[in-house]
Every structure is written in structure tokens, then in C-alpha cells.
Write a structure and sequence with these properties.
The complex is a heterodimer of chains A (about 110) and B (about 120).
Chain A: E1 5-7, E2 10-13, E3 19-24, E4 31-37, E5 43-50, E6 53-57, E7 64-68, E8 74-78, E9 87-94, E10 101-102, E11 106-110
Parallel strand pairs in A: 2-11
Antiparallel strand pairs in A: 1-3, 3-8, 4-5, 4-9, 5-6, 7-8, 9-10, 9-11
Chain B: E1 4-5, E2 10-14, E3 19-25, E4 32-38, E5 45-51, E6 56-59, E7 62-67, E8 72-77, E9 86-93, E10 105-107, E11 111-116
Parallel strand pairs in B: 2-11
Antiparallel strand pairs in B: 1-3, 3-8, 4-5, 4-9, 6-7, 7-8, 9-10, 9-11
Chain lengths: ~110, ~120
């Protein structure tokens, strides 16, 4: 157990729908990072939050949004889902170091 | 534009031999490099890292070498064990931005290592 908790582990939905992925960082970590891993792709950085504020944005689509709440948990919202959004979504947390600790991921399947 | 490249999608070695995984990067601003290991159905786990001020870092059976002039790093596993079979990701960081709160990692696509008994 890495200490980073992601829910749900698996999610199957239809095109056009909206889903929310949740992440609880390790105790004491203020930073949360979201990554997407599609088939045959590496981990693509989506977005980072630090203590509730957005700090960096990567290849995140406009249909996707995220936030970090006062208790430091984070949610990634994916809307108007397309088949190509099927992927593993990882959350990672960090205590202001380069070493990110990852959760087990949420596998999203869009049918 | 892929800034971190792992050109070998897979590698197969015999138990007890050396595994060498390679990684190239293009962004000269990267100053910290990490290797992560990933088993199926799990998230990536941190393995070993190296700062750009060093050219070698060792931790047990794992050694990472950095050649800054060639923008190349490698991970050596000696001796390789069947439990080392996993996907290995190389990652790079530019160091902290935003007042020391952003340590975004850029990842390669990974190399699947298979260690045969």
C-alpha cells in the first residue's frame, strides 16, 4: 500500500457521459498530480495541485477538470467522454520532492 | 515531442545476468532523473534516482548511470531476478518550479523487462 488511495479502481461507462475519479494523497503530502496512461503510451502528465491551488497543467483536455479540496483530496472530472478517453488514470502525491508516490490507478473504459 | 525516450519496448534476460535498461532525453533543463517500476494492476513505484550533479547512484542491485553530455541514462540490475520482471519507466524533472511546489515528472513509454528463470 503506497498510501495514495484512488477510487474507483474500475469504471465502465458510455460515450458522452461524465465521471469523477477521486484521490486521497499520502498523509502530509500537499501536492497531487494526475497522469493518464493510454495503451502503449507512457504516463502523460495532466495537472498538478498544491495545497488547493493549481500549479501546473499538462496535456489536459478542456473536457477534463480537476480540483483539490481543503482536506487535500483531489477529484478529476472527465466529461463528454469519448472512446479515446479509455485509459488508466493515476494520481500521485509528493511532499515537495521529486519523488512522487503513485496510487494503484483507476481504469476507465468508455464503450 | 517526446522529451524522454525509452527506445526498447521490451528486454529479456536470464536470471543471474545483468539487465541494462536505457533512456534518452532531449531537454537539457532536466536536472533530476528517476526510475520507476510497475507491476500489472499496480501503480508505478519509485526505484532509484540520480541528480544531474552525479554520474552514478547505487542502491543494492540497482545502479543508475547518467551521461549528461549524451543526454543518456541507464539502469543496471545485477543480478537480475524473476521478481524484477515488470515495466520500467524512466522519468525526468526540471527541478522545482512555483516556489518549490511543482516537481512534475516527464515519463518515457517504459520497457518491459522479463527475467527468465
Amino acid at each position: 500500500d503506497s498510501g495514495v488511495t484512488q477510487t474507483p479502481k474500475h469504471l465502465i461507462t458510455a460515450t458522452g457521459q461524465r465521471v469523477t475519479l477521486r484521490c486521497s494523497p499520502r498523509s502530509g503530502d500537499l501536492s497531487v498530480y494526475w497522469y493518464q496512461q493510454s495503451l502503449d503510451q507512457g504516463l502523460q502528465f495532466l495537472i498538478q495541485y498544491y495545497n488547493g491551488e493549481e500549479r501546473a497543467k499538462g496535456n489536459i483536455l478542456e473536457r477534463f477538470s480537476a480540483q483539490q479540496f481543503p482536506d487535500l483530496h483531489s477529484e478529476l472530472n472527465l466529461s463528454s467522454l469519448e472512446l479515446g478517453d479509455s485509459a488508466l488514470y493515476f494520481c500521485a502525491s509528493s511532499p515537495r520532492t521529486n519523488v512522487l508516490t503513485f496510487g494503484a490507478g483507476s481504469r476507465l473504459t468508455v464503450l | 515531442d517526446q522529451q524522454v525516450k525509452q527506445n526498447s519496448p521490451s528486454l529479456s534476460v536470464q536470471e543471474g545476468r545483468i539487465s541494462i535498461l536505457n533512456c534518452d532525453y532531449t531537454n537539457s533543463m532536466f536536472d533530476y532523473f528517476l526510475w520507476y517500476k510497475k507491476y500489472p494492476a499496480e501503480g508505478p513505484t519509485f526505484l532509484i534516482s540520480i541528480s544531474s550533479i552525479k554520474d552514478k547512484n547505487e542502491d543494492g542491485r540497482f545502479t543508475v548511470f547518467l551521461n549528461k553530455s549524451a543526454k543518456h541514462l541507464s539502469l543496471h540490475i545485477v543480478p537480475s531476478q524473476p521478481g524484477d520482471s515488470a515495466v520500467y519507466f524512466c522519468a525526468a524533472s526540471r527541478g522545482p518550479n512555483s516556489g518549490g511546489s511543482n516537481y512534475k515528472l516527464t515519463f518515457g513509454k517504459g520497457t518491459l523487462l522479463t527475467v527468465n528463470p
